Amino acid sequence: MSTTAATESGTAAGMATDTAAGTTHVRGACPHDCPDTCAMTVTVQDGKAVNLAGDREHPYTRGGLCVKVDNYLDRVYSPERILYPMRRTGPKGSGSFERITWEQALDEIATRFRGIAAEFGPEAIMPCSYLGTQGILNGLNVGDPFFAKLGATIAERTYCDSGACTAYTMTIGDCAGVDPESLVHSKFILVWACNVMSTNLHLWPFIAEARKRGATVVVVDPVKTRTARAADWHIPIRPGTDGALALAMMNVIIEEGLTDADYIDNYTVGYEELAERAKQYTPEWAAEETGVPAEDIRKLARAYATAQPSVIRIGVAIERHAGGGQTVRTLACLPALVGAWRNPGGGILQLPLWAFPVNWGAMMRPDMLEPGKRIVNQYQLGQALTGGLELDPPIKALMVYNSNPVVVCPDQERLIEGLMRDDLFTVVSEQFMTDTAQFADLVLPATTQLEQDDIMFSWGHLYITYNHRAITPLGEAIPNTELFRRLAARMGFTDPVFRRTDDDMIAEAFDWSAPAMAGITVESLKEKGWQRLNVPPADQYAPYAQGDFPTPSRKVEFKSSIAEAVGNFVVPLFRQGSNDHQPGTPVDPLPHYVPPRESPHTNPELAARHPLSLITPKPHAYLNSSSANLPMHRRVQGDPTVLIHPDDAAERSIATGDDVRIFNDRGSFVVKAKLDKAVLTGVVVSAYGSWRSHSKSLSTMASLNPTAFADLGNAPTFSDTLVQIERA
Ligand SMILES: Nc1nc2c(c(=O)[nH]1)N[C@H]1C(S)=C(S)[C@@H](COP(=O)(O)OP(=O)(O)OC[C@H]3O[C@@H](n4cnc5c(=O)[nH]c(N)nc54)[C@H](O)[C@@H]3O)O[C@H]1N2
Ligand SMILES: Nc1nc2c(c(=O)[nH]1)N[C@H]1C(S)=C(S)[C@@H](COP(=O)(O)OP(=O)(O)OC[C@H]3O[C@@H](n4cnc5c(=O)[nH]c(N)nc54)[C@H](O)[C@@H]3O)O[C@H]1N2
Ligand code: SF4
Ligand SMILES: [Mo]
Q1: Neighbour-count burial for 177-209, b at 16+ CB within 10 Å, e otherwise
Q2: Which residues of the chain have pLDDT under 70?
Q3: Is the CB of 458 under 6 A from ligand 3?
C-alpha cells in the first residue's frame, strides 16, 4: 500500500494494489458496537481475505485492533456461518432447518406479513434490532423506513446509554463533550463505571500518557477490574448507588468553596437552587448508601475540584439502575461547578457521537410514520410476546436483525416462552445460528463487514471511517440494506427510499454542508479511509470554555429547563420517531438521589431471600454475545463464571470451581464459581455474552435481570438485580 505520513486523515487509496500480483489492501472499519471504531486494512489475495490489521496511521487505532477482532477472519470464514436462507423443519427451537431459495424466503415473508396485517392489523408485526453492526447504512436504522411503511409496531431500542443520553441532554445538551485524545492534558481522570481496558481499549494510551505527565487516575467500580488495577486509586462502590457519591462530591465542592464562581456565574443556570439542594447530601449520608468512607468522599471531591483540568469518563454501566439517569445528571453538572470545561482535557466524556452531523432523518425516515403508532420497548419483548403487556393486536410476527435478544434482553424465560409460540412467525437475519435464530421460522443469511460497504460514525472518537467491501459475499449472504430493498420490492413498496443504492445512502448519510464536515466528501473518505471531523485539534479542543452548550439557555443547566418542560423522554435515536422530545412523566429539574430498587438498603424484605447484588459487565473477549460461539474467542474468555467474595462464598460453602446456581424469583442459571477478593462483599459478577445454548442450565443471567426501566430514557436496570447463590 502506498503510504505517506498522515496526521488528520488516512493515506491515499481506499484500495491499493501491491507489487505482488493479485494482492490488494482494502481500507475498512471495525463494525462492532464499540467506542473505538478502529480503522483497519484487509489484505485480499485472489479474492480471499488473508490478513486484517489495525491502521497504524490512525491517531486513535494506532495499529492495534483487539482480542475480539484480531481474528475476525475466523468469523468471516467460520464453517458455522449461515450462508443460505433456511426454513424451519422441526418443532420451534429444535434447530432443524432446510435450505430454501431467496425467492421462496421473500415470498413466504411477504405472504405472512400481508396475511397478518390483513387479519390483525400491521401493528401485529414487530421489528427487533440493535447494533450487530454500527454502520450508518446497515446498523441501527436500516429497517426503519420499511417498518414505517408497513405500519408495524415501533420497537423502542434503549438497551444502551439511552438514560445517560437523556440526562446528558437535559444538563449540557447533545454536545460532544471532551475529545478523548485531549485526555493527555487532563490532570485528574475519574473513570466511573467503565472498564476501559476491556471495553474502550484504545483510550488507555491517552490516559497512560496523562499519567506519565502527572495526572491521577481514579476508578469507581464495585469490582477491582483490569482498569481499576492499573489506576492510582480504586474506589469500590455498591452497585446502583453512584448518584449518592456524586451528590456528596457536589456537597463537598460547594460547602468547601472549591467552585469556579466565575464559570458558574457566566455559563450555568440554577446554581443557587442546586447549592440548596446539595446541602442534604453529606459525605456521611453518602457513606451509608455507597459503602465509600466519608473521608474518602471528601478526599475525592477535593482532588477532583482542585486538579484542573479534570475529566470524568463515564461507562454505559453507570445508567443501569433505578437512579441511573439522575446519576448522570449529577455527574454532568460537576465539570461546570469546578470550571473543568475551560481547558482541553477538562469536562465529561460520554458519547462524542453527537459531534457527527449524521443525517439520521434520512436513515430512519420519521416522516413516514403514521402518528400514534404503538411503541413497544424491546427490553420487554418477553412480556410483549406472552401477553404480559396486554397488546391489542398481539404480536404475531417478529423480525430480528442485528440483534440476539435471547442473550441481550432480560426476562429470558418469558422470551423463550414467547419465541416458542406456534402462532408467532419469526424471521431472523443473522451471520450465525444464534440462540435467537434457533427459534426462527425463517433464517436469512447476512454478510459480515468484509462483504459490504458502509460508513461509520464513532461514539468514542472524532473520526469518520469508510468501510470498503473487501470480498465478494459468501454464499447467498446479503447486507441488511439489500435485505430491506428486496423485502420492500416484494411487498410492492415503490417509494424512492426503497430504491436507494448503498452509494445513494452514503450520499445521504451526513449533512455534508455542516461545519464539522468541511474538507470531507464521500470521495475523500473513500480514498483516505478515515478523516477527523473539522473540529479543533485535541490540544486546542475546549469548545465550552465560554459556555455555548447546546441547551435551551446555551449554558449548563443545573436546573434543567428540558426536565421542567418535557419531563422524562427517550432521545429519538433510540426510537424511530420524530426529532421532538415527546413529553413524558414529570421529572424534578434539580439533580437528586434515586436509590436502587433491589438492594439490601431499599428492599430488605427481598434481600432477606436474595441478598447479593448481581452485576453483568461486558465480556473481555466477546462483543456482547457476538463471537461467543467461536472457538478462539471462547478459549480466551474461558468458561462462564461468577466472581464471589471469599466471605460470601464461605457462608455458602462454595469453593472455586464449584458449579453454582444463581437465582431469584425471575429465573436461575448455573455457572462455575470463582472466589475473588476483587469483588465487594455482597456483590457477585458474571460477565454477560455467553450463549444460552452453551450453558448447563440452558439459561443465562438474562433470566434474572428485571424488565423495570431506570428513571430516565427507559434505560435498562441490569445492575439493579438481587440474587441468591447456592451450590448446584
Ligand atoms: N470487550 C468488550 N468491549 C465492549 C463490549 C463488549 O461486550 N466486550 N461492548 C460494547 C458496548 S455495547 C458497550 S455499551 C460498552 C460498555 O462499556 P462499559 O460501560 O465500560 O462496560 P461494562 O463492562 O458493562 O461496565 C463497566 C464497569 O462498570 C461496573 N459496574 C456495573 N454496575 C455498576 C454500578 O452500578 N456502579 C459502578 N460504579 N460501576 C458499575 C462493572 O463492574 C464494569 O467493570 O462496551 C463496548 N465494548
Ligand atoms: N445482562 C446484560 N444484558 C445486556 C447488557 C449487559 O451489560 N448486561 N448490555 C446491553 C447493551 S449495552 C447492549 S449494546 C446490548 C447489545 O445487544 P445486541 O446488539 O443484540 O448485541 P449482540 O449480542 O452483539 O448481537 C448482535 C447480533 O447481530 C448479528 N449481526 C452482526 N452484524 C450483522 C449484520 O450486518 N446483519 C445482521 N442481520 N446481523 C448482524 C451478530 O451475529 C449478533 O448475533 O445488550 C444489552 N444487554
Ligand atoms: S471491537 Fe472495538 S477495540 Fe476491537 S477492533 Fe473493533 S472498534 Fe477496535
Ligand atoms: Mo452497549
Answers
A1: bbbbbbbbbbbbbbbbbbbbbbbbbbbbebbee
A2: 1-21, 578-583
A3: no
